[in-house]
């Protein structure tokens, strides 16, 4: 256990840093393009959505059930409460963002728009970082470490278009390419921090099932609300990519 207490947060920090850097890589697109083709976004977002849906079950909800049963309690309670709380967190965050938008409705400059986009993306990056941290913090066997790495890879993949989704609109509003890139790169800087917090929470055994389910609820809500509609811009291609993403993540979680 002492080794896990040391390695868990460090591994979570590394995982969160990787996903942050991938977001920054996505933001680099603003240096070459002013907008991204909708068909390409359908491919990226569809594949990412499939990955996140699969990861939410195999890497978060199923381990939450197993940990709750190992503790001798009822598995349905932490899973249900945590899952609903995760979705509620995203809804509350969205309401806070709407209030900020209304209060800044008269701000037409690109820096005001960039701030709003940064807040929006940062809020939903928090549960993603928590999910990475919890996965690494709870990993006590080679199989669970592989699952945590797979989850990190899945979140990183869907972070790539997020970086572009932040930087490109800011660029279209007239900001410089460098400023647009910086906004996109900074949008996920919260992930390493929340990953470390998640790893620390994972060592509180009674809270672990709740935290795992919370992360799953938040991730699924964001996936359904943001990634799937983007993939639906090309319905057939988007559906195919969701299936492929789900299958790929399931393979990583089950086979490795």
Terminal residue distance: 23 Å
Number of strands: 0
Helix proportion range: over 70%
N-to-C SSE series?
A: HHHHHHHHH
Structural class: mainly alpha
Low-confidence stretches: 1-6
User: How many discrete domains?
Assistant: 1
Question: What is the number of helices?
Answer: 9
State which percent range the strand residues make up.
under 5%
Instruction: Characterize the largest beta sheet: strand count, sense, and whether it forms a barrel.
Output: none
Mean pLDDT: 80
Query: What is the molecular shape?
Result: globular
Rg, alpha carbons? 18 Å
Describe the model.
This protein is an all-alpha fold and 256 residues long. It has helices at residues 2-27, 38-70, 76-103, 110-138, 142-172, 177-186, 190-202, 208-231, 235-255. It has one domain (2-255). Helix 2 (38-70) packs antiparallel against helix 5 (142-172), helix 2 (38-70) packs antiparallel against helix 8 (208-231) and helix 4 (110-138) packs across helix 8. The longest helix is centred in the first third of the chain and has 33 residues, at 38-70.
Question: Nutshell version of this structure?
Answer:
This protein is mainly α and 256 residues long. Helices cover 84% and strands 0% of the residues. It is built from nine helices and no strands.
